[in-house]
Amino acid sequence: MIIANLFCYNCSRCRTSNTLRRQSSDLQPHQRGVSRRRKLDKAALRAHVRAYPEALVRERAVHFGVCYNAVWKALKALKITPKKRR
Description:
- The chain has five helices and no strands.
- Helix 1 (about 1-10) runs antiparallel to helix 2 (about 15-20).
- The longest helix has 10 residues, at about 15-20.
- By secondary structure, it is mostly helical.
- The protein has a domain at about 40-75.
- About 50% of the residues lie in helices and about 0% in strands.
- The chain has helices at about 1-10, 15-20, 40-50, 55-65, 70-75.
């Protein structure tokens, strides 16, 4: 029955073989792994922004030992606009 449904919906060969392989077990989605630990602590970044509001993104990156882009993305996630220039 499941095989017929897969062919009716034009599923790929990989999708069909994966479904057939999982048919013997339960069809629940696979459990995801544990997320990795991030280098940049967002609470510490927020505290650093409060303590040093005039610091540039590259200065914050040096302070936390991460790349410029990591600080930029974290600030964006915290909805904090970074200082552009001096």
